[in-house]
């Protein structure tokens, strides 16, 4: 699982890559709790599951879960800029049809 800034090339085209532009929202993958959550998600069997991401920020965890096999994700945030960043990142990663944002 790779988290890649949207302006860079992916390091491994055969891996699960999440292209991310956090905009003004929290969530680049470098914060320790985000990194630990990403490692945890990567070790789960998410096939057919629904994932809820409270305080979704950039959408990084919800999008990673979808790219790792989750059927659906729900992202919730009180910041309108975070919702927009999540929406943009979901489109960038081809998962916007499976991500609901509130």
Automatic annotation (TrEMBL):
Gene Ontology terms for molecular function: protein-lysine N-methyltransferase activity
GO cellular component, one term: cytosol
Name this protein carries in UniProt: Methyltransferase domain-containing protein
PANTHER family: ELECTRON TRANSFER FLAVOPROTEIN BETA SUBUNIT LYSINE METHYLTRANSFERASE (PTHR43648)
Organism of provenance: Enterobacter hormaechei
CDD domains listed in its UniProt record: AdoMet_MTases
Magnesium as UniProt keyword: no
Origin superkingdom: Bacteria
Entries under SUPFAM superfamilies matching the protein: S-adenosyl-L-methionine-dependent methyltransferases (SSF53335)
GO biological process, one term: methylation
């Amino acid at each position: 699982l790779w988290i890649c800034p949207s302006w860079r090339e992916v390091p491994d085209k055969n891996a699960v890559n999440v292209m991310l532009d956090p905009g003004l929202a929290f969530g680049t993958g470098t914060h320790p709790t985000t990194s630990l959550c990403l490692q945890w998600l990567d070790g789960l069997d998410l096939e057919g599951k629904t994932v809820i991401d409270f305080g979704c920020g950039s959408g990084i965890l919800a999008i990673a879960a979808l790219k790792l096999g989750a059927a659906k994700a729900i992202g919730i945030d009180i910041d309108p800029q975070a919702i927009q960043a999540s929406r943009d990142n979901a489109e960038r990663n081809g998962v916007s049809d499976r991500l609901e944002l509130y």
